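Write out the 3D structure for:
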Amino acid sequence: MFKIGYRTLKTAIGTVIAIMIAQFFGLDNFASAGILTILCIKPTRRKSLKAAFDRILACFLSLFLASAMFEWIAYHPIVIGVLLLIFIPITVKWKIQEGIVTSSVIILHVYMAGQVSFHLIVNESYIILIGILVALILNIYMPSLDKNMGELKDEIEKHFSSILSEMAHYLKTNEELWQGAEITDVSEKIKEGKALASKDLENNLLQGENIYYTYFKMREKQFELIERLLPLLTSFQFNSPQRIKVANFIEELSTHVHPGNTAHHFLYKLYQMKHEFKEMPLPTTRDEFEERAALLNFVSEMEKYLQIKSHFRGIYQKG
């Protein structure tokens, strides 16, 4: 069964309201108010406000140009073409080209009227204002995206925890049983989360930043590091004490993946672990030396992973 979205619902309701208002006031071409409303319903408040401003400016510009050119030259189809050759470049230059389609409706109204009168100017002005303002008022309501973003956040954290747990398991056992399905899924979830957070920011006109967008960007950077870390795992061959310590550290880290910020705690533990490595005996063979170097490189990447999180102030939810 098909689903009716809130934007579709607002478009349908807004069109009816705009036409009824225009018809109530006895305006000519009252159905055009509904057309303007349809064209002005946008997915976000910011885009709606921008579209409303652009279309109002473009419509009144087209009304002025159409009145002048039809009266001064002639009411002829060729004049419509000449008018559009002048009007469209102006809208592009002023960056209000979104209003071209709605303005074309006004131009055709003037052409079909056959003459410019005070009644025509007032009629078209009311149609413009009713159609656009109805859309603008309806677009004030935008459903909250917090629940959707929160669910994506939880799924991403669950995947991060699983990936880190699998990394720790491999370091301890050398078992390659993991299929890595979380890698593809978490990448898609991060992209989806960023898109939702951007939309949410567009809906909040006075909001300077979106904490969820910052969160998803932070996870994106961490995920890029994880993708670099995974190939390093295959270079380890010996179950050395250092390797087991790193595995235990990652295993503990996997149980603390959440939107708060405990990165400083784990950075401190990581620095302690690096200090312990320095106190341990040096490698005795070339293979052990290469593995120790690879392990230290792995730890350095984990340090970057934690530093990325340390700059994030955290999301603290009620309840």
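The CA atoms of residues 270 and 303 lie 7 Å apart.
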